[in-house]
């Protein structure tokens, strides 16, 4: 039997506003409702950014606490992954705060890049600091890769003892300043990964649908959601995260790789102490 596809819903992000889409969840209750809807549509994991009471991107531990408690009450089966990327203007100390809440996973950005008009700064000393903080808390990192050069950076952390195998990567394609959202680039990234790892692919904007399809065919997992793409099709806003998850579920089933349940995803990602 082919391995099930883990579908992650990236619910909010740090760049979007209600001016971009009226379907963006902002309050803990709205984010939890989106998480529940994504779960019911077939997602096994949610990737979470926080917003404060004014809807501004936040890494404050209390803002995250409210959101995490609401999600766990609404959909306790879901794998909960927090962002340590935050927003481009945030300090390392701000970005690290949600780790104290012991999520299942956390994103670990492995390099610096131009991020649209800004610089998303992740110098290696900071990356090591974040990896060490996750290691000390037993939180499994998802290694965020925006270009192939970030893969060797992750392997440096492995050699230094700051990561444990098997590694899990998220290959993000289509960010202005990172690798373009093409299937050719996805294939190159996949071929550059170390043996024995697992990987997810995230296509940004119009790249989401082709990258999702290619990732399923190549044996990977997929991330969809408003953080990465606000449109269902050209000119038509998606009405929340669930329609994008449901489409990924249909693709996975048509390509004979059924969507993973949260329990299956935990096994695949070695989240229950099942290390190789």
Protein architecture, described:
This protein has 276 residues and is of the alpha/beta class. It has one domain (7-268): Aldolase class I (TIM Barrel), CATH 3.20.20. The chain has nine helices and 14 strands. It has helices at 28-41, 61-74, 92-96, 124-137, 150-159, 183-192, 208-217, 242-254, 262-268, and strands at 7-10, 45-48, 50-51, 57-58, 79-82, 105-109, 113-115, 118-120, 140-145, 168-173, 198-203, 221-224, 231-233, 236-237. The strands form four sheets. It has an eight-stranded parallel barrel with strand order 1-2-5-6-9-10-11-12, surrounded by eight helices. Helix 1 packs across helix 2 (61-74) and helix 1 (28-41) runs parallel beside helix 8 (242-254). The chain is globular.
In short:
With 276 residues, the chain is α/β, with parallel strands linked by helices.
What's the topology here?
Elements (H helix, E strand, L loop, with lengths): L6 E4 L17 H14 L3 E4 L1 E2 L5 E2 L2 H14 L4 E4 L9 H5 L8 E5 L3 E3 L2 E3 L3 H14 L2 E6 L4 H10 L8 E6 L9 H10 L5 E6 L4 H10 L3 E4 L6 E3 L2 E2 L4 H13 L7 H7 L8
Parallel strand pairs: 1-2, 1-12, 2-5, 5-6, 6-9, 9-10, 10-11, 11-12
Antiparallel strand pairs: 3-4, 7-8, 13-14
């Amino acid at each position: 039997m082919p391995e099930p596809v883990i579908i992650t819903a990236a619910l909010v992000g740090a760049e979007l506003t209600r001016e971009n889409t009226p379907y963006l969840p902002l309050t803990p209750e709205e984010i939890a409702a989106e998480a529940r809807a994504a779960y019911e549509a077939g997602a096994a994991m949610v990737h979470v950014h926080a917003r404060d009471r004014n809807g501004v991107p936040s890494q404050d531990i209390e803002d995250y606490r409210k959101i995490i408690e609401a999600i766990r009450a609404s959909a306790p089966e879901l794998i909960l992954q927090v962002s340590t990327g935050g927003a481009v203007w945030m300090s390392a100390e701000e970005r690290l705060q949600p780790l104290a809440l012991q999520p299942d996973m956390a994103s670990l950005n492995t390099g610096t890049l131009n991020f649209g008009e800004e610089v998303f700064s992740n110098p290696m000393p900071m990356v090591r600091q974040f990896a060490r903080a996750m290691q000390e808390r037993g939180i499994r990192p998802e290694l965020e890769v925006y270009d192939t050069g970030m893969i060797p950076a992750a392997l440096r952390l492995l050699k230094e003892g700051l990561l444990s195998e098997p590694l899990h990567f998220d290959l993000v394609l289509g960010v202005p300043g990172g690798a373009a959202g093409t299937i050719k680039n996805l294939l190159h990234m996949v071929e550059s990964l170390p043996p024995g790892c697992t990987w997810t692919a995230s296509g940004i904007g119009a790249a989401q649908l082709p990258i999702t399809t290619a990732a399923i065919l190549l044996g990977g997992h997929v991330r969809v959601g408003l953080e990465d793409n606000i449109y269902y099709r050209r000119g038509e806003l998606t009405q929340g995260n669930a329609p994008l998850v449901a489409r990924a579920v249909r693709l996975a089933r048509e390509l004979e790789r059924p969507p993973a349940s949260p329990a299956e995803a935990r096994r695949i990602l070695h989240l229950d102490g099942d290390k190789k």
